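User: Run a structure prediction on this.
Assistant: Running it now.
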Amino acid sequence: MNGVQLFLLGRTLMKIGEEAIPTGGVGKRTTSTRSVLIVMLDVYAHPDTTVGEIAVRSGLPQSAVSACVARLRETGSVVTTTDPRDRRRTLVRRDPEVSDRRAEVASASIDGALSTALGTSDPAELAEVVALLDALAQRLSPEMLTRLAPDAPAV
């Protein structure tokens, strides 16, 4: 496998993951699932951060980050507070309470999206691929990205 093949595999896995995330009851949004996840991971890695700081670390436009933070706040994934040192700034942090939406997303199965992507509903084949993905996920966590670029955020 070369770098391009690895990149394409990552894109494929990302799309399967996006398809596996339940969207019922969320309604039409202007933010992509991918952007929301990038912002959420950044907030979880950097508590008490600002929209501007998230934009710098993630490379997303500040308006997109603001929209993602609003969406995450609506679903109970993050909370925002006024920065006591600079009342013009808003701090974003993970909501310590697990909302119904966060619990739903965390417990959602990937089987349907994976079955569609693989073109099979064979339980043995799906179980084999899920086991391989689990093993890969245990070895390659988002935190490991800092080893590739020590100054880059782990998002």
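The longest helix spans residues 3-20.
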